[in-house]
Amino acid sequence: MGDRMMTRRSFLKTTAAGIGGMGLALGCPPLLASRAAEAKALEPGTLRLSACVEMIFRDRPFLERIDLVAKSGLPAFEFWSWRNKDIDGILARKKANAFEISAFCVDPGCRLALPRSKETHVSAVRDTARVMQKLGVKTMIITVGNEIPRVPREKQHESIVDCLKASAPVAEEAGITMVVEPLNTLVDHGGYYLWSSKEGFEIVREVGSPNVRLLYDIYHQQIMEGNLIANITKNIDLIAHFHVGDVPGRHEPGTGEINYLNVFKAIARTAYKGYVGLEFVPAKSGEEALRHSLELAQKAEALAKAGS
Q: What would the pLDDT profile of 146-205 be if each residue is shown by its tens digit?
């Protein structure tokens, strides 16, 4: 692609011509197909990238960041809290660019690890679900809050499970999936309760709802656990969203110690159909970081589909 980033239209033309047939699915123009049809048509081995506009293009006004992601050729963007955002403005930019919002976070302020926080959490999920339905978003990111001093971890674990069980019917009725996110406590989130994907998967299993899954953040889990490919592939049925960042520095893939080509290839070999969120601070320009990530994902797809 040289110095030019692949657009959705150029990718569609390439695919139609049968060149490689392994590129990243970047969505169809709205006159050609609906997004629902696109999701159903995803081939095995397809990786869909989403850019987190809280961390990429953050030197630009928020709504302009959405336009820049669209120009990069990615099919979706995501963000964190919705409370301080221009929801109507976001919806207008989404429609104008004919692409998707992959995820955003539940209304903040609830500590799921704190016993007796169930009612507050359910209310937050209900409020956030209404905004998600307005924006056409299907994935709600859940963080559980910091560990509670002098409360046994098993009690905090039980509280998280109880909160998610209580809010699962709200998610089911709204047609959304809540994804619980473990975070690292060594670099970025000291004191956070849920640092282990192992415990995260246990929580998801205990809740027992198809609308509650894990957000597997590759950056955080490399810091806390490692063993990325084995943990991902053994539990892929419990994962509904990924976040990407390299270690150290939390920059784009290829800047640190994680072999993202192999990680992406492992994901592409599974039946995973969710988004892979690019949640990093670009080491260079946002445009270059997204272009590089897109090319890396396409290469991983090609290798996976070729059986390499």
A: 999 999 999 999 999 999 999 999 999 999 999 999 999 999 999 999 999 999 999 999
CATH hierarchy code of domain 42-298: 3.20.20.150
> How far is 188 from 250, CA to CA, in rounded Å?
10
* DSSP states along 131-183: HHHHHT--EEEE---BPPTTS-HHHHHHHHHHHHHHHHHHHHHHT-EEEE---
CA atoms within 13 A on the CB side of 153: 8
**pLDDT-based confidence at residue 88 (cuts at 50, 70, 90):** very high
Of the chain, the percentage scoring pLDDT greater than 70 comes to 85
- CA-to-CA distance for 63 and 270, rounded, in angstroms? 34
Instruction: Say what the alpha-carbon torsion angle 282, 56, 225, 247 is, to the nearest 10 degrees.
Output: 10
Distance (Å, rounded) from C-alpha 218 to C-alpha 231? 10
